[in-house]
Write a structure and sequence with these properties.
It contains 17 helices and no strands. It is mainly α. The longest helix is centred in the first third of the chain and has 32 residues. The chain is globular and about 50 Å long. The two termini are 29 Å apart.
Length: 452
């Protein structure tokens, strides 16, 4: 088998080239999808400067369609977080119940993410995304009907979370790994930052809209809108050319493909460190999100509208952070240091939020939480993507997505702490663990600090 080197700029900056367990391109459709991306560069090969550099990837037609669909997808996810969280807390009054719902979504991601990575590497990514988006839309439509008929029970929401989690096991690795095929390595840093910007743009408006709509049309109406968003995504994916596939049945040789991906990661200390940092953040920092209804209702004495505003304000900070990351350009160095600073800032901001005792102060804290959270996500995602070859990118990203599946374990742990000690103490403890673990990584792994 052959060994494919990383692009020169990446391998020079890291001092190593990640080995590839596979030979050949493994992507018959790559030419068709990259031929359509022809952004206008200046004679020195650089994208336009100034403010346009922040949005340079949107000059690529296929990525533009992908990004538009992504806006609908993230809007649906943000609206669901508010509507489902409000419904569950209204039904049960328990932070543990909120954690159980999130755990139900995370368990299938742990079980099936590796298989989803194999599917992303084997099959046409665009078609796989279309199938999964439609399936998620149908699940949300069923939940909407149950709520409208006043027939919904807690176990229905658990089953829906399990089903959605299983579908996300295929969706997330595929969505992540298709981006380099749409834009190429040159614009990858910018494209990932714009992905994060799009996500956080929806975090500003979608939660607030969902909070208002819950009071106007009810939770069922919001779920109907969520289902419609997923069906719209299917339409936006149709103009994107086929990405091609290696062929074969999903389960045939899947075990061997999974082991190749895991061995690829095991041989790269850089990937191991980056994935470990993502895991720490997922387990101990990110669970603050599912406790937002508890903070809004129990700690601050607010309602659904204020809950939406809290999540929207966090999105404002996140959008500012991701746009700043995107404006740094492809030649920005010191990404390793930037990722360390972002995680430490994330932990410190969560401590600020957990200690805030007034609604306005909580909103200020959430702005900084959003900036630091999205900054880390964009940089960490870019570093992982630029340290893998495209033959195994789907499988590597499936392991990355498993950190989000493990997030459910963190949510269950934080949920138990919140029921016993209170939400502020639970979030504060998670923030302290995140800070300590990040400082340990920064001190003990100098190669992390040297990443460019």
């Amino acid at each position: 088998m052959t060994e494919k080197q990383l692009p020169q700029s990446t391998s020079e900056s890291l001092g190593e080239a990640a080995p590839s367990p596979l030979g050949g391109s493994g992507n018959p459709g790559a030419d068709s999808i990259t031929s359509a991306r022809s952004p206008s560069y200046s004679q020195d090969g650089m994208a336009p400067g100034g403010v346009w550099r922040t949005f340079s990837s949107l000059r690529i037609r296929n990525y533009r369609w992908f990004w538009i669909g992504m806006l609908f997808g993230f809007s649906a996810m943000q609206m669901q977080q508010v509507a489902r969280g409000w419904l569950v807390y209204e039904m049960t009054g328990s932070a543990l119940a909120l954690g159980a719902i999130m755990a139900a979504a995370g368990i299938p991601m742990l079980l099936f993410s590796l298989l989803g990575g194999v599917a992303a590497d084997r099959f046409d990514k665009r078609n796989l995304l279309i199938i999964v988006e439609g399936s998620i839309g149908l699940v949300n439509l069923v939940v909407a009907i149950l709520i409208a008929l006043n027939a919904v029970e807690f176990w229905h929401l658990l089953v829906a979370s399990l089903a959605t989690g299983a579908m996300f096991s295929f969706y997330m690795p595929t969505r992540q790994s298709i981006v380099p095929e749409l834009v190429g390595e040159r614009d990858l840093f910018n494209a990932i930052a714009l992905n994060t910007s799009g996500m956080n743009l929806t975090r500003i408006a979608a939660p607030a809209i969902a909070g208002v709509l819950v009071g106007i049309i009810g939770v069922a109406g919001v779920y109907y809108i969520i289902a419609a968003c997923y069906f719209i995504i299917m339409v936006t994916l149709l103009p994107i050319p086929s990405t091609g596939n290696r062929g074969g049945k999903l389960l045939s040789g899947a075990g061997q493909d999974i082991m190749e991906g895991l061995n690829y990661i095991r041989r790269s200390q850089t990937l191991l460190i980056l994935l470990a940092m993502a895991l720490v953040v997922s387990l101990f920092a990110m669970p603050y999100l599912f406790l937002m209804p508890v903070f809004a209702v129990k700690e601050l004495g607010r309602g659904a509208i204020e809950l939406g505003v809290m999540m929207g304000v966090s999105g404002i900070g996140a959008l500012a952070g991701s746009l700043t990351i995107g404006s740094l350009g492809r030649d920005f160095n010191h990404k390793g240091w930037l990722s360390i600073i972002m995680v430490l800032s994330f932990g410190a901001s969560l401590l600020f939020f957990a200690s805030a005792r007034s609604y306005p102060l909580s909103l200020v804290a959430l702005v900084f939480v959003g900036i630091a959270n999205t900054g880390f996500m964009a940089v960490n995602n870019t570093l992982i993507m630029t340290n893998v070859t495209h033959e195994v990118r789907g499988r590597v990203m499936s392991v990355y997505m498993m950190t989000f599946g493990l997030q459910s374990a963190g949510m269950l742990f934080i949920g138990i702490l919140a029921d016993g000690l209170g939400a502020p103490a639970a979030v504060g403890l998670g923030a302290i663990i995140t800070i300590i673990a990040t400082l340990a990584c920064a001190i003990l792994t100098p190669q992390l600090r040297r990443l460019e």
